[in-house]
Amino acid sequence: MSKTASVALAPSASLFARFMAAVDRFLMASAEISNQNGDLPRFGL
Q1: From which domain of life does this come (predicted)?
Q2: What are phi and psi of 30, to 5 degrees?
Q3: What angle do CA 41, 20, 28 make, to 5 degrees?
Q4: Residue 18 and residue 13: Cα distance in Å, rounded?
């Protein structure tokens, strides 16, 4: 029997992945607001 124990930890999101998620949330919120106003959403930055 092994005397060591391993614990599976979820990998932490990288800084780039968190930044891209924030940009995605911003663009989706902008598209939803445009849709509610009856405008066509502008995609991209």
Answers
A1: Bacteria
A2: -65, -40
A3: 25
A4: 6
Residue where the block lists tokens 């995609």: 43
Q: Look at residue 16 and give its three-state secondary structure.
A: helix
Estimate to the nearest angstrom the gap between the alpha carbon of 43 and the chain centroid. Answer: 17
What is residue 24's predicted lDDT score, i.e. its pLDDT?
92
Structure tokens at 11: 């990998």
Q: DSSP assignment of 17-36, as one string?
A: HHHHHHHHHHHHHHHHHHHH
CB 31 within 8 A of CB 20: no
Residue identified by tokens 């599976």 is 8
